[in-house]
Amino acid sequence: MLATAVIHYQAAAATDRGRKRASNEDSFGFSAEHGLFVVCDGMGGAAAGEIASSLAVDEMMRQLGEGAQGRGRKTAEQAVAAANSSIYSRSRRSARLSGMGTTLVALLAEEGRVFVLNVGDSRCYRLRSGHLEQVTLDHSLVDEQVRMGRLTQEEALRSPLRNIITRALGTQATVTPDVFEMEAEPGDLFLLCSDGLTREVDDPQLAQLLGQEKPLEELTDLLITAANKAGGHDNITCILVRAQGEA
After folding, report:
1. Strand partners, 90
2. Which of 40-44, 139-143, 240-244 shows the lowest per-residue confidence on average (mean pLDDT)?
3. Is residue 159 a part of any domain in this protein?
4. What is the dihedral angle through the alpha carbons of 198, 199, 205, 211, rounded to the nearest 10 degrees?
């Protein structure tokens, strides 16, 4: 008779203003107990980005955290729709907040089954057996051009249009997240992060940092330090989620 591993999750998070920005418009929230992890990177003047990202995180935690009715792909998509509506309606009520929006990357874990959702260019990675894989696809102008073969990866990195995202939460009445479903294995390490990390730290360096046998809190600090050392041009936020098994 085969023993089935029961998966549970450990997590740690860190956020930093970076070295160039006057404020931090990133937000995050997580509950390892409920298998929910969210990172948002807000945009908009006069602190509107900070409001948008915190609204999105609050709504995701409310919809999918403690007391959530049902947990799966459909429920997760409904939570993103609710977060989008919350930001959009708030921006319509205030001229100061008009046009505000946020990226979102979220991981919802139900024992061994994992759903990853994203809107914008905040990312999710999975490190498994030393191999780092980017789970999400950026909703950005240059990344879409790379995927269509119109730009090389090197050209995309130098493009003056690299800050333009093609999908965000709260800027339109509706939004469609990408959803990725997968099975977690004991030892998997997931990274959810804003682009303040990935603009400064490339994938090989991420793999090297994440591959170290250190507590998750130390690893998040190492990621923040590496991004700031490379320039710290934007706010930096990361959540690390480790899948652990009990036979």
Report:
1. none
2. 139-143
3. yes
4. -10
For β-strands 131-134 and 104-110, DSSP reports them as unpaired
Prediction pTM value = 0.94
CATH number of the domain residue 88 falls in:
3.60.40.10
* CA angle centred on 121, ends 115 and 125, rounded to 5°: 45
The 10s digit of each residue's pLDDT in 25-59 is 999 999 999 999 999 999 976 679 999 999 999 99
In angstroms, rounded to a whole number, what is the distance separating the alpha carbons of residues 2 and 240? Answer: 30
User: Residue 66 half-sphere exposure, CB side, CA atoms within 13 Å?
Assistant: 4
Number of domains in the chain: 1
- What lies within 8 Å, CB to CB, of 3 at 6+ separation is 247
Structural tokens at position 25: 């418009």
Give the 3-state secondary structure of residue 153: helix
List, as one string, the DSSP characters of 157-218. HH-TTTT-BS--BSSSS----EEEEEE--TT-EEEEE-HHHHTTS-HHHHHHHHTS---HHH
Domain that holds residue 64: 10-235
17 assigned to some structural domain: yes
- Cα–Cα distances in Å, from 102 out to 49, 74, 235? 7, 21, 13
Q: Is residue 76 part of a domain?
A: yes
Q: What is the DSSP string of 71-84?
A: -SHHHHHHHHHHHH
Q: Is residue 2 assigned to a domain? A: no
CA separation, residue 179 to residues 130, 137, 165, 205 (Å) = 24, 10, 18, 26
